Amino acid sequence: MVEPAQQPVFAVVGHPNKGKSSIVATLTRQDAVKISEISGTTTNAQQFNLNIDGYTHYSLVDTPGFQRPRQVLAWLQQHGANAAERSQTVAAFVAQESNQPDSKFRDEVELLQPILDGAGIIYVVDGSLPYSPEFEAEMTILQWTGNPRMALINPIGGEAYVAEWQKALSQYFSVVRVFNPLTADHQKQLLILSAFAELYEPWRPAIEATIKTLRGYFQQLERQGAFMVAEQVQQMVSYVAEIKVPAAFVREQLQQKLKGDYQNRLRKIEATLQRQLQVLFAHPEMKTHAEKLNLDYPDLFDSSHWYLYGLDRQKIVTLSASAGAAAGAVVDIGLGGSSLLAGALIGGLLSGAASLYATANPEKLNINGLPIAGETVTAGPMKELTLIFVVLGRAIDFLDMILHRTHADRSLAEVSTTTFTKRLENLSKTDQVQLTRLLQKAHKGLDESELVKLRDWVLQLCKAGEQSE
Known about the structure:
Blueprint: E1 9-14, H1 20-28, E2 46-52, E3 55-62, H2 69-79, H3 86-98, H4 106-116, E4 120-126, H5 135-145, E5 149-154, H6 162-169, E6 175-178, H7 186-197, H8 204-238, E7 241-244, H9 251-280, H10 313-324, H11 326-334, H12 340-344, H13 356-360, E8 376-379, H14 385-403, H15 420-425, H16 429-441, H17 448-468
Parallel strand pairs: 1-3, 1-4, 4-5, 5-6
Antiparallel strand pairs: 2-3, 7-8
Helix pairs in contact: 2-3, 2-5, 3-4, 7-8, 8-9, 8-14, 8-17, 9-14, 10-16, 11-16, 14-17
């Protein structure tokens, strides 16, 4: 056994196409790790670090899969006289094959070298496939190295054979865990890090410090992402487009030009937020489609899709009435919500005080009469509560998606259109009214304390969406 370094380094090894690269991507929070369903995508060992604020907390080495484990084990058994010489025998094998450019054991050399350099071992298997004795050659080779080792069962296609794998792996590895890198939330990732500490006692202080750092880091990311959403909502709601009336104009063309400028700017603000969130959460390579999440994701101004957010006129009328009568609402809240709120807020608070047609047309967009040449005609700010909730709902849905997206997930990013009705129903009636009143003020601009308050609402609404599932 080679003495491991004080800073944890792990070689992720196993049979080809068992999700090794996916585990590396998730646990190092990097979407630069190459992942493919095609066997043999990883041909060279490559190290990836978990970096936070410029400091490396641990490293994972992505390695090729075993190709000829039985032949390697046969060589080791022929050259290893006893158990005390096993690690040296593995080193002799790697040294011999490294000097042969055409070695048929190139993949084995690549995966064993970082272990000989002191890396701990993370052995990955697929829990959806039955256990087979053919894997024993791989596990025996890793056992021969003497390095600290654990096994992760990746349920790529289900957990049908997890119990079977657990029994077999426990004979070769001191730590065995089930871990799906595509769905593992932050808590599950931290549990795997806790298991790392069991492998090698000198690593424990560094790993425990990393877990503490990550908990704070994840909370910081959530707050930053929510604040970015709050800023974007205010920017979109308060935005005003304007156009000067030319000396000669066609009224219809002028109106369409103003409307187009206004809507395109709002779309650009929304797209910018999505790119910023991708960068913040280290998903710069996340697949999108023409600034949309998929072909079915509705355009911001496509009112035919607003039902996805739970919009209807009756609900928005009751919400506007509750929030608009601020003093009365406060009194009613003090009385336990027995009057106004009982009828106004039960049943969801996201819908239209005006028709969807009226909502689809921004404030002050209609040109009445014949404006004088040289005058400025404006569109915005956004005061229509229905559209404000659509803007907020889309932003929160995107944030919610990226909060739960692991770095191993390379599918086309899709947003789950959790209706705002469902999110709001998990908030108290008092909270619902206060949130609405804050949004109604947004077109005038929010100060720093109000933006912080909106940030807190965004976080609560994300959690409310989780609770409703």
